[in-house]
Amino acid sequence: MSGVQHHRATLKKNHKSFKSRHSTKGQIKTVQKGSQGLSKVVTIVPLSSSIDAKSVVTSIIGSVDQQAEVNSPGITSVYLDRFKQNLTFVIPPASFLAIIDSAKVADFVVFALSATEEVDKFGELCIRTIESQGVSSVFSVISNLNDVDTIKKQTEVKSSLSSYFSHFFPSSDKPFTISNSAESLNLCRSLCQKYPKGINWRDERPYILADKFYWQDDSNSENGGYLAVEGVVRGKGIDPNRLIHIPDFGDFQVAKIAKRQFQRHSVLKEDISNESEFPDSSQDDVDPFINIDADMMSDEEEYDMTAEPSIEQGVRLDDHLYFRDEYKEDLDQKLKSRKIPKGMSSYQARWILDDDEFSDEDISDNEEMEDENGEGDFGISKPVASEYEPTDAGEIEMDNFVDLAADEEELQLKEFRQRARDNLDFPDEIELSPTVSAKDRMIRYRGLKNLRSCTWDADEKDSRAPEEWKRLLRVANYKGTRTRVLKESLQNARIDVGTPVTIFIKCDRNLVELLGQAPLILYGLLQYENKMVVLNFAIQQSTEYEEPIAAKETLIIQCGPRRYTANPIFSQAGKSSNNVYKYQRFIYPGESATATVIAPIMFGNVPTLFFKKVDQELRLAATGSIFNADHSRILAKRSVLTGHPFKIHKRVVTIRYMFFNRDDIMWFKAVPLFTRMGNSGYIKEPLGTHGYFKATFDRKIHAQDTVAMALYKRVWPRVATLWDGNI
Q1: CATH number where 660 lies
Q2: Which Gene Ontology cellular component annotation is one that this UniProt entry carries (predicted)?
């Protein structure tokens, strides 16, 4: 006995995780195998019209010498004795939405290729969409190979189809020949023994593939009953306080969740059919917007935007207002009656408070303190000696400037704009009509010295902001909130993964009739995931869609389990220190951008697809993923006014065709100018009454150069609406 060694008693624990009373270590391993030991879901996707999906399922089951009645379309569950595994085969209807929805919930997707028929347009749309939306694990099978004449041709066909399929899924296995019993057995073995890769966004939430659904009458219910859905909880544990999302039908509250008895071939067997979980007072509501009461509305710091500035004050430049002449005249009149100390200029006197007083002996003549260059008070240029030299067109000082005749002016304007259309220098260029005031048309625009470093208040008041803007959910830290919500969802889950349940959903009775024959899938939402936010997507146009996509164009967006109709706003991709980004009118093939909509928040890097309806068909226009949910992201639409150099003398240039009256020039005088060749300048003074003005640049400009002024206004995202599924 002295040679026998014993472990210390401190190492003996009765509550080790792998030593429960109900399960042995081998049983727990079996539960964790595959998709938590559940019946593995296998979706069959035919890529050609000649393929019979039912025969594919029959061949897989028949490879282990078993038979089953296969529902096509429908769901077929079978227990394979040879591999001791439950498989659930899903054959969706010949509908695009039903196919891609069935692929989302599948542990394995089996693509069926035809040896005698090429993949049709519909099949290629399906495989591209499934690849883009995220897929767990995939296999491919070849049917009708015996219809090919010779063995040599059969080998060529298999090689060609394998090359085609590897283009979409490079790491997948070679295609299985479904007519060959040995290869069918290998496929069946892979389905039963291989661990599915999973889909991150799906596996972070609870979801249920419905075994059946029906209407359960209940006189205590507001709608006279509930939609009862039977199935097994997958992904993560479910909490009855969270909402349930049914694709294309919306979000619904849970009345209760009843546990059912485990199936015959499950590892753990116990009767829990009498247990039910009910929501409590913390259950989420179905209102997609934040409820704001009167007290919250009065809280200006959190909900009220800053006051909208008066448009009569003047143009805005980098969040500063430049006053109009009438305001300047009132201020000048006030300064004339003010006592100014000796040695102080009129500009410095503007910073003196009204209650400051000075003695008469400190007063100095205001005119003696003007700048040497003739720049007057308040940024308005005073008349100075012209810097021009005499030219063939004559001296162009303001006193000697003569406007052209109206007919001649109109003719030259048409010629200039025709040349501009032939050689478009600025994609954002707009043309102003000579009869329209630029000040009135561009009243909401502002000037910016630098888009990347400007100051722009994200909460400034704007009458064109969406009505729902104040009721949107604001997420300060998107990644941090996602981590917290996922952690809390695990802690608050009342029903574990793998539990058969019956979920009773609060809804109208007619929903049962609208669900149709497509497999019913329920997704459990995380906290806040029914609330509207400003959702930003990283988007890239599909290589198969060659036409440019216009901003505000109606698109059908699929984001995880949701599909909604939206008019996204496009902006530049990347990150900016001031969170101001240039609005883009189009995105083109191969170009990356950011799409912004007001839509329900989804946590995580969820794949997003953008479809466009063309001739009653859906085309995959772009793909992307959720970038963040930042409401302070400012989308600045850029409009460029261009002018033509009329007279050039050194750095001083006379510009025409940018404005057509004197008042517009004075209004936009504070906004800087630039040229196509990289020069920068500013407006000095107007000339005449037809919109000519003097401008000074940093260096002499070329006669063929184009002078431009960039103006910006904020563009607000639009609210997305639930798509009804009608193509």
Answers
A1: 2.40.10.190
A2: preribosome, small subunit precursor
Q: pLDDT higher for 245 or 421?
A: 245
φ/ψ of 237, rounded to 5, equals: -60, 155
Residue for token pair 């496929």: 187
Q: In this structure, are 95 and 142 located in the same domain? A: yes
Does residue 561 lie within any of the structural domains? Answer: yes
Q: Bridge partners of 557?
A: 564, 610
Cα–Cα distances in Å, from 640 out to 434, 462, 478, 559, 708?
Answer: 16, 22, 35, 35, 6
* 138: pLDDT strictly greater than 90: yes
CATH code for the domain in which residue 568 is found: 2.40.30.10
DSSP-based three-state secondary structure for 208: strand
Q: Kindly tell me the burial class for residue 450, based on how many C-beta atoms sit within 10 Å of its own C-beta (0-12, 13-18, 19 or more).
A: exposed
- Read off the pLDDT of each residue in 244-270 and give the average, rounded to a whole number: 78
Torsions phi, psi of 110, nearest 5?
A: -105, 115
pLDDT tens for residues 460-494?
Answer: 888 899 999 999 999 989 999 999 999 999 999 99
- In a shared domain, residues 45 and 184: yes
d(CA 223, CA 506): 8
Q: What is the structure's pLDDT at 690?
A: 84
Q: Total structural domains in the chain?
A: 5
Q: What is the DSSP string of 78-138?
A: EEETTTTEEEEEEE--S-HHHHHHHHHT-SEEEEEEESSS---HHHHHHHHHHHHH--SEE
Pair 652, 675 in one domain: yes
Residue 298 lies in a domain: no
- Give the residue-averaged pLDDT of 602-622: 92
**pLDDT number for residue 724:** 82
Q: Give a yes or no: residue 587 inside a domain.
A: yes
CATH of the domain at 520: 2.40.30
Q: Is residue 725 very low, low, confident or very high in pLDDT (cuts 50, 70, 90)? A: confident
The pLDDT mean for the chain works out to 81
Q: Which two tokens mark 39?
A: 């019946």
Structure tokens at 119: 């993949």
Mark whether 223 and 348 lie in a shared domain.
Answer: no
Q: What is the dihedral of CA 74, 80, 86, 88, to 10 degrees?
A: -20
602 shares a domain with 682: no
Q: Is 253 within 8 Å of 59 (Cβ atoms)?
A: no
Measured between alpha carbons, how far is 154 from 161 in angstroms, rounded to an integer? 11
Edge-first strand order for the sheet with 276-277 is 212-217, 225-232, 500-505, 254-259, 276-277
Last residue of a domain, one of 505, 524, 543: 524
Q: Is residue 305 part of a domain?
A: no
Q: What is the CB-side half-sphere exposure of residue 671 using CA atoms within 13 A?
A: 25
Structure token pair of residue 16: 């080790």
Name the residue range of residue 591's domain: 530-635+717-722
Instruction: Mark whether 93 and 137 lie in a shared domain.
Output: yes
